[in-house]
What we know:
Elements: E1 3-10, H1 12-16, H2 20-29, E2 33-40, H3 44-50, H4 60-67, E3 72-80, H5 82-90, H6 103-107, E4 116-118, H7 122-132
Antiparallel strand pairs: 1-3, 1-4, 2-3
The structure holds 2'-deoxyadenosine-5'-diphosphate and magnesium ion.
Amino acid sequence: MAIQRTFSIIKPDATKRNLTGKIIAKFEDAGLRVVASKRIQLTLAQAQEFYGVHKDRPFFGELCEFMISEPIVVQVLEGENAIQKNRDVMGATNPADAAEGTIRKEFALSIGENSVHGSDAPETAKEEIAYFFSGLELVG
Ligand code: DAT
Ligand code: MG
């Protein structure tokens, strides 16, 4: 498996509780390198566009309101098999189902307030990285 890049968000529930450093440590301990990072606050329109794939789901409104409720940290993570590796470190969407040692098991509050986002495939990783970062901001 080649070196990949994936897109990550440290979500409002985690930035609010000052967990940014602990979450980044989990990425780094798993062999993922932070090659871009910034703290931003999304507008409602940006949150709705980012999560557009879920627009017909019953939780869409709640999800978008949550994502704009506090600043977030958007990052690009690089490493061997980075997309799957990041998903493994994140754990299952619902923290009740997440494995021991994963970010969501340790830090998530609920299925909605689940501390992190990570791209789920190479195409979405590419799109999500390009949405938040210019090429000049990616420093491998
Ligand atoms: P993931 O973030 O693990 O890729 P997803 O893409 O299915 O999960 O959903 C995106 C986000 O939407 C998820 O991180 C939290 C929220 N969400 C998903 N299912 C939900 C549910 N049943 N109730 C409330 N929020 C939900
Ligand atoms: Mg997803």
